[in-house]
Amino acid sequence: MVKFDHNKMRKTRILLRDSHVQAAIPKTVILSASSLRRMLGNYRTVYVKPNVGALGVGVMRVRKLSASKYEWRYKLLRKHVSSITQLMSLIHSYKKSGSYLVQRGINLMKYRGSRFDLRVVTQRRNSADHWRVTGVLARVAAPGRIVTNGSQGASIHPYQQVFGANMSARQTGQLRNSIDHLALRIAKRYTHVYTKCIELGLDVAVDDNRRIWLLEVNTRPQIKPFTKLKNLSMYRTIMDYRGKNKGH
């Protein structure tokens, strides 16, 4: 079993070395009172999440509503406070152990009124093989939820379905091509450091202006969501690659 770094900030720094990938990464910094103040001043909406974690666990959203009013959300909770000090106190009362990150919030494209993002799986059969995008699906957030993880109630849909509600079939095809191109760049950049890596799960978002963003890189991606699609061809392809990846 090959061991990889699960520290999100270190993974981000690896990817920032590729200018094409860098343009798709939302500004991300280590959480502190000063960094939170600065990020909210620049972007007004940010996500606070564990530096090491998965499945959307521990993710909070903070919005600056005015000079002295902030909205904090976690799971189905929503609270308002009037200072960064109160905000940090609230965050610390719900955060797990370890460091946290502050990431710029993205205005995600919506499907039937709910935010969605994409899980993109890239694989190769061995460390000498070419990378290939073997799976793409959409995760639509459950009502009232701030994250799109299936473990937190999100629904799973073919990407063509959610894109089709926002754009033409031709535009959907062009966007998919751009996502594939970015995913392969990310995989190649990542394996400059982790040469044995043969599978990555990417959390990719598309904003209201159809700009593509990379939210997170997972070295042990959950494949179960692909079993929820009616067409299981992507799931079979992913498992075929995994079957030939001895020692993964």
UniProtKB/TrEMBL annotation:
SUPFAM superfamilies annotated for this entry?
A: Glutathione synthetase ATP-binding domain-like
What region holds the ATP-grasp domain? Answer: 17-243
Cite the entry's keywords alphabetically.
ATP-binding, Nucleotide-binding
Q: Listed GO molecular functions?
A: ATP binding; metal ion binding
Q: Is Cell membrane one of the keywords UniProt gives this record?
A: no
In terms of Pfam families, this protein maps to: ATPgrasp_YheCD (PF14398)
Q: Which InterPro entries match?
A: ATP-grasp, YheC/D
Protein name from the UniProt record: YheC/D-like protein
